[in-house]
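How a chain folds remains the central question behind the approach discussed here. The record that follows shows the chain in one-letter code together with its fold in token form:
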Amino acid sequence: MFIEVNNIKLYYEKVGSGYPLILLHGNGESHDIFDITVNILKEYFTVYTIDTRGHGNSSPVSELHYNEMAEDIYSFIHKLELDKPFLYGFSDGGIIGLLLSIKYPNLLSSLIISGVNTNPNGLQKKWLILFKIIYKFKKTKEYKLMLEEPNITIDMLRKITVPTYITVGSKDVIRENHTNLIHNNIPNSQLKIFNNEDHGSYIINSDKIAKYLLEILIMKHQKK
């Protein structure tokens, strides 16, 4: 299905029934990385998987910026009249979730993010160097985005009031001390480290993140 927001069209799929849960993919990906996850979660939630602008079946764009992507999701939630949905974001999807929770503190019921950074230096140095080399040759908007954004400050993180759950792989591209900085500056956030997992191995085409989401969200859903 398509929905028009901010003069572009976002492609999304909706399955299941129950409390709304939005899943957001990472850089250069699309909603289909969550196929296994959705098959599990649809028994418990109404699951919305979205292709962010410039990705998948959504409208192509000449440039990518996290703030614009966040505004797209804000408009999506309001156009569909979703009442304080859960939001799970992987990598870039998690950055979008952070920006939404900073700017719109009452928008979400809970935020779950995996493998996020608040600035490009949150990436391990070897990966940051590699991405710079790749961008030098390819000049793609996806790599440009990773090298220039996001720019989320500690003060911005401290404004987040929604219950926040952070996950990271023990072999992630995100620096361990950077993940700890995010966790330590989002009030009452919880951190889970997936041992022997890299940036996306427990998320893409995996049931592990679905089981984790069920573990933390079913209890909250039952309280509503």
Summary: The mean pLDDT is 96. Residues 2-223 form a domain with the Rossmann fold fold (CATH 3.40.50.1820). The beta strands are 2-5, 8-16, 19-24, 45-51, 86-90, 110-114, 164-169, 190-194.
